[in-house]
Design brief:
This protein is α/β, with parallel strands linked by helices. The protein has 2 domains: about 35-160, Nitrogenase molybdenum iron protein domain (Rossmann fold, 3-Layer(aba) Sandwich); about 165-270, Rossmann fold, CATH 3.40.50. The protein has 10 helices and 10 strands. The relative contact order is 0.11.
C-alpha cells in the first residue's frame, strides 16, 4: 500500500508541476504580428501595444545571416502578419510564409544599417503605426500615443547626433555609412571589411590617418571582440565606446540609443 500511495503522490506532483509550467509559459504567437530582426523588434516594440507582437528572431544567431530554426518557423507560421527588417538575409525567408508583410528597409538596400540613423527611423514610424492599426484597430489610440512619444525621442536623438558632426570615429563594424551621410560624422576608418578584420598593413595605414586627427573615438561592438581594436587602443591611446548596433536587440530602441549616446557624451566630455 505504501508503494502505491507513494507512486500516486509522485504522479499527482508531476501533474501539478505540469499545470504550473504551462500556466507560466509565454503566450502563443497566434493572432500576433511576428517581428524579424533585432532592430525591427526594438523599433516596433516602441509603438505596439502589449501582446500584439512576438520577437521571432532567433536569439544568439548571426544577425547578418538569418537561419530558419524551429522557433522562427513556428512564430511565422502562427502569426497573422510579419514585420521584417527586410535585409537580403531575411527577405526571401519571410516571403516564403505568404503572410501580410511590412519591410522596413527598401528592396535591394546595399547598407542595411539605416536604423542607426534616427532620421531614417522617423520615416518608418507612420507605416508601422498604420500596419498595427490594421490588425489591432481597437488599440489605435494607444498606437498613436506611443508613436508620438517615440517620435519625440527620435527627434531628440536626431538633434544630439547633429552635435557630433565633424567628430572623428573609427568603427569596429562597417555600420555607420548612413550616419556619416545624415550627420556628417567623420568616420576615419573601420576595422572590418565584411566579417573579416583588416590586415596589419591596412591597420598601419589607418593609424597614420588617425595620427593626423585632433582626436578619435573607437566605436566598438559589445557583442564581438576585436584584436585589431586592442592593438589600436594600445598604440594610439584612443578612447573607446561600446556602441550597441541593436543587431541582437531584445530591448527598445529608446533604451539602447540612450545608453549609446550617454557613453559617447561621457567620452567627449573628458
Amino acid at each position: 500500500m505504501g508503494g502505491k500511495r507513494f507512486a500516486f503522490i509522485r504522479l499527482l506532483a508531476f501533474f501539478l508541476t505540469s499545470v504550473l509550467l504551462c500556466s507560466c509559459a509565454a503566450p502563443p504567437s497566434n493572432n500576433r504580428i511576428a517581428i524579424v530582426g533585432g532592430p525591427a523588434y526594438a523599433i516596433v516594440s516602441e509603438i505596439a501595444s502589449k501582446d500584439e507582437i512576438v520577437n521571432a528572431t532567433p536569439l544568439a544567431g548571426d544577425p547578418h545571416f538569418l537561419e530558419v530554426t524551429a522557433s522562427l518557423s513556428k512564430a511565422l507560421e502562427q502569426s497573422v502578419a510579419i514585420i521584417s527588417l527586410g535585409a537580403s538575409s531575411d527577405r526571401k525567408i519571410v516571403e516564403s510564409f505568404h503572410k501580410p508583410l511590412l519591410f522596413l528597409l527598401p528592396a535591394n538596400t546595399k547598407d542595411p544599417h539605416l536604423w542607426l540613423s534616427p532620421k531614417r527611423v522617423i520615416e518608418w514610424v507612420p507605416s508601422i503605426e498604420s500596419f498595427l492599426d490594421d490588425y489591432f484597430p481597437e488599440n489605435k489610440k494607444e498606437h498613436s500615443a506611443n508613436a508620438k512619444r517615440f517620435l519625440t525621442q527620435l527627434y531628440s536623438f536626431d538633434a544630439v547626433f547633429h552635435t557630433f558632426s565633424g567628430s572623428c570615429f573609427i568603427t569596429q563594424h562597417p555600420a555607420f555609412a548612413i550616419v556619416q551621410e545624415d550627420y556628417s560624422w567623420n568616420i576615419a576608418g573601420t576595422l572590418e571589411i565584411g566579417e573579416v578584420e583588416i590586415s596589419p598593413r591596412k591597420l598601419a595605414a589607418l593609424s597614420r590617418v588617425v595620427a593626423t586627427q585632433r582626436s578619435c573615438i573607437l566605436l566598438l561592438n559589445p557583442n564581438e571582440e576585436s584584436k585589431t581594436a586592442e592593438v589600436l587602443k594600445q598604440q594610439l591611446k584612443l578612447p573607446s565606446v561600446y556602441f550597441d548596433l541593436m543587431e541582437l536587440a531584445t530591448g527598445t530602441y529608446t533604451s539602447i540609443m540612450e545608453q549609446n549616446i550617454s557613453k559617447l557624451m561621457d567620452v567627449i566630455k573628458r
